[in-house]
Amino acid sequence: YKLGLLSSNFPSGYSAYDNSGSDNITGGYFNQGEAGVVVTSGDSLSAGAGGTAISGSSSNIRNWTARSYSGGNSFTSTSYANYVKAKRNATPVPDIASIPASGTGGTYSLPSGNVTVSPSTTIAASYVTIIVNGDLTLSTNNLNRDGIVFIVDGDVTINGVGASGRFNSANRPFALISTGEIAFANALTEANGLYVGNSIEFGTGATPLKIVGNVSSSTPSPFNRDRGTSAPSMFIVFDPRHMLGIIDKVSTVKSSWTQLQ
Hints:
Layout: E1 6-7, E2 45-46, H1 77-86, E3 91-92, E4 107-109, E5 115-117, E6 129-132, E7 136-138, E8 148-152, E9 156-158, E10 166-167, E11 174-178, E12 181-184, E13 190-197, E14 199-201, E15 204-205, E16 209-217, E17 224-225, E18 234-238, H2 241-244
C-alpha cells in the first residue's frame, strides 16, 4: 500500500535487483510471484514502458486488473507511538549503555535530547523498547542484540556504514517508530527492519536501496533514487520476523481462559 501516486517505471527490458538471493526477479512485476494486491490512495497507477497494460492481458503483468479504491488511515505514526508508550511502564536511564544486562524484555526511557547509536554503542539486553525523547541517528551496521524497538519522539537518520552501506545487516528483529521523519542516507544500500514514520525520506542519487522487513509512512513519501539501469532502484522484501518476533513490544497481548469441571 502506498499513500499518493504510485509510478513504478518498468523498462522494456528487466534485470534482477542484485543477482543474489531468492528474492530477485527479472520481470516487470509489482510483487514477486505476481500474487497479491497493490494499493495506492493516489489517482493513478502507472507501470511505465514495460508494463503499461495494467488492466489488460500483457504477459508482463499476468492479467492484473485495476480498480478504484477509497480508504482511511486512523493510525498515524504519532498515535501509534503514543499507544505503545501508554501500554508500557518505562524505566528512566541516563543513556543506552545504562540499560542492564538483566533488563531483557523491559522498556527504558532516555532523557530529553538527541541520541546517536555508533558502532561502539552496546545494548546489553535483548528484546527491549527504548524511548528516545529527541532525534535519533543510527550510524552503525549491526545491532548486537535481537528484538530492539526504538520509539522516537523526533526525527531519525539512518546512515550507511562501511563500504557496503548497510544497517542491521545481520537481519535481527528490529522496529523503529518515529513521530517525525525517517531519513535513509544517500549512501545506504540496505536497511533491515520495520520502519514506521510520519514521513519517509528515501534519499537521492544513483545508489539503489533495499529494505528487508517493511516500511510505513503516515504521509505521501516520494522515491527519488534512480540507478539509471534496467534493474529496480528500490526493492522491498517483506520479512515478518520484524513484526512477529517483537509483536509483544509494539502491541498488547491479551488472553482469556475458561475452567471446565
